[in-house]
Amino acid sequence: MDYIIREAQSRVSAFTDGSSRRIQSLSLLECGRIRHNDGKYEQLTSACWIFLIVERGTGSYRYGSGTDRPGRPGSCFLIPPGEVLDLNPSGGTGWELAYVLFSGERGQEICGYFGGTADRIWLVEPDGAWRRQLEQINGMLESASPAFAERAALLFEFMLFDMSLHYDNGSASPLPSSDKAAILDAVGQAIYTPIDDNMLAASLNMSVPTLRRKVRQYTGCALHDYWHRLKMEEAKLLLTHSPASVKQIAARLCYEDTYYFSRLFKKIVGLSPLHYREKDKPQRQ
What we know:
Structural class: alpha+beta
CATH architecture of the largest domain: Sandwich
Distance between the termini: 40 Å
Number of helices: 11
Largest sheet: 6 strands, antiparallel
């Protein structure tokens, strides 16, 4: 695995001081994306667990000493330490992969989420919620905060658990889920993306008016108001647990105008971002 990780288009290493971790059973080591035009990866293995998901490209894969099987966007692979995976693209098209390296005894239990897939390979929708979740994980690891590294680990496990609930052992057919839970989860997972009613409604297979009506029904807030409030809650965590500047936090939460972000934060929270950070300092020391 090391030789393709070195070619990763983007990579973020986690804060790894084990002495300060409260969650010892699952630790994220690194995440990133790999784009490789040649695309042929043979004998992928690692001393830690590897999670891979194909973002672009079709071809075949071979797990261990098994036979070649077709792979496509949305194919997920969970590779235990020391085991081997081969990926071979169709016609030299290459692969685009997102990956997470992790360690800990929870790895084997996570495999149990996908008990029907003997070789730990399953299929998800190519544009599912996992894309937003991986972006959030990436942002948390970028903060270089121990608390956010642990939060990223919990979100990573939730992402895999959610995959196991919504997709039945490699099937691309989502299992039934609560309408309210699906809508609020989709909004909550989009806090690191620009506010886009049309995109969110399309991901939920409903019209924008229906989405707005349901969000108000479930939360008592207008869609944009609810979305901004979720972003401000995330901003409070970033101000408390990361050294990022207000400008960096605003950009991470997709506010291009730092002054607008600061005014909105004060309106919702009651303090400016800097005053909120200063107020919280004695609690952290």
